[in-house]
């Protein structure tokens, strides 16, 4: 038996153990049909059942209204940085869109959208991303085709715990790193997208939830594989979809359902993240998290050791010690450094407690 590893990676990230066990059991012979999902045509009734149940489960778990389509696409979150403007920037005349930029991922999305129209960043550019500028200071343009934001900035650890009020303008959100970690009122959005590889599966499939009446406005240069209307009309089977990733998604959604759904995921995420934030805030400055307390992420917790810019030697020591205890993928994103603990759905409270205990011990030794 392999020794237990504690995976705090930011994505691709830990999958629930029962999901991996089931995938292993079914790898060579899926459901008694004698072949693997890896070898199965996407046009078979067996695969139809897989993709349809992934959709049904998602609809149920997120309470997706009937007038929304659910698509399973390739190209990752990054693909959606292009697909969103390619499909939606022409909803209104003037081809402009508003972007709320609160970190790396919304900044990248805004930059990509500039290829297709006018992008208005509604908040002043920050030297350092440390929070969400007060919504009263946003300069929203009422004639924008949509307002875009990233619900959880994975690198900086900044999470929206409110839905921006955009009046009548369509709202678009990147939920790649916090989808299904809590309930969400889908009806407030024109479109939600999320790569699966953090909270709901493995890399390769990107979920798009889009309101039906927004389809059919794609720019003519929009690649067909990214045209939401074409994909919606074909049940995401315009071309070969990422079959195996959709199968893993289905297994994870079943696991979430069996474990109580979005409400329970939310409760657990609060419990897990509090364990770590409490240690940071009670460490008398030994650990520091640069993010405003009002928007600290439940999913990704970036922190420094020693001071706000980090004591490199201590941080190195921390990571080495963690790795000896088989706590892995804790290194901060290369653009910000430091440490980052990611606590997605599959990471358990017990695993988080092991990290918490190590953090406490480390303070004692090095204070
Ligand atoms: N959005 C967010 C919030 C992300 O965290 C990431 C990837 N970590 C992306 C988009 C980009 O996703 P991908 O690498 O699948 O293109």
From TrEMBL:
It catalyses: 4-(phosphooxy)-L-threonine + 2-oxoglutarate = (R)-3-hydroxy-2-oxo-4-phosphooxybutanoate + L-glutamate; O-phospho-L-serine + 2-oxoglutarate = 3-phosphooxypyruvate + L-glutamate. InterPro entries: Aminotrans_V_dom (IPR000192), Aminotrans_V_PyrdxlP_BS (IPR020578), Pser_aminoTfrase (IPR022278), PyrdxlP-dep_Trfase (IPR015424), PyrdxlP-dep_Trfase_major (IPR015421), PyrdxlP-dep_Trfase_small (IPR015422). Its EC number is 2.6.1.52. Residues 5-354 form the Aminotransferase class V domain. GO terms for molecular function: O-phospho-L-serine:2-oxoglutarate aminotransferase activity; pyridoxal phosphate binding. Its cofactor is pyridoxal 5'-phosphate. GO terms for cellular component: cytoplasm. GO terms for biological process: L-serine biosynthetic process. Pathway: Amino-acid biosynthesis; L-serine biosynthesis; L-serine from 3-phospho-D-glycerate: step 2/3. It holds the Pfam family Aminotran_5. Keywords: Amino-acid biosynthesis, Aminotransferase, Pyridoxal phosphate, Serine biosynthesis, Transferase. Belongs to the class-V pyridoxal-phosphate-dependent aminotransferase family. SerC subfamily. PANTHER family: PHOSPHOSERINE AMINOTRANSFERASE. This is Phosphoserine aminotransferase. It comes from Silurus meridionalis (Southern catfish).
């Amino acid at each position: 038996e392999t020794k237990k590893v504690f995976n705090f990676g930011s994505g691709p990230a830990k999958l629930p153990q029962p999901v991996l066990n089931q995938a292993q059991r079914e790898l060579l012979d899926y459901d008694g049909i004698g072949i693997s999902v890896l070898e199965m045509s996407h046009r078979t009734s067996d695969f139809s059942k897989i993709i349809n149940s992934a959709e049904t489960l998602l609809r149920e778990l997120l309470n997706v209204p009937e007038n929304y389509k659910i698509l399973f696409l390739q190209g990752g979150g990054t693909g959606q940085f292009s697909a969103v403007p390619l499909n939606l920037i022409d909803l209104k005349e003037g081809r402009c869109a508003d972007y709320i930029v609160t970190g790396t991922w919304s900044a990248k999305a805004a930059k990509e959208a500039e290829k297709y129209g006018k992008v208005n960043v509604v908040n002043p550019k920050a030297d350092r991303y440390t929070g969400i500028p007060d919504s009263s200071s946003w300069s929203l343009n009422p004639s924008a085709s949509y307002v875009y934001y990233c619900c959880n900035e994975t690198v900086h650890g900044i999470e929206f715990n409110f839905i921006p009020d955009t009046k009548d303008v369509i709202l678009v959100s990147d939920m790649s790193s916090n989808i299904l970690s809590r309930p969400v009122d889908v009806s407030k959005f024109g479109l939600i997208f999320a790569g699966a590889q953090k909270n709901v599966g493995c890399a390769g499939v990107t979920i798009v939830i889009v309101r039906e009446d927004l389809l059919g406005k794609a720019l003519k240069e929009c690649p067909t594989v990214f045209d939401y209307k074409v994909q919606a009309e074909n049940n995401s089977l315009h071309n070969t979809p990422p079959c195996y990733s959709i199968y893993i998604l289905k297994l994870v959604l079943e696991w979430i359902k069996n474990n109580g759904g979005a409400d329970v995921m939310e409760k657990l995420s609060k419990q897990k993240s509090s364990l770590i934030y409490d240690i940071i805030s009670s460490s008398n400055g030994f650990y520091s998290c640069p993010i405003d307390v009002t928007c600290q992420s439940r999913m990704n917790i970036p922190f420094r050791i020693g001071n706000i810019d980090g004591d490199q030697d201590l941080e190195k020591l921390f990571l080495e010690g963690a790795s000896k205890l088989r706590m892995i993928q804790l290194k901060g994103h290369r653009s910000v450094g430091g440490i980052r603990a990611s606590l997605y759905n599959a990471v358990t409270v017990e695993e988080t407690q092991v990290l918490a205990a190590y953090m406490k011990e480390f303070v004692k030794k090095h204070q």
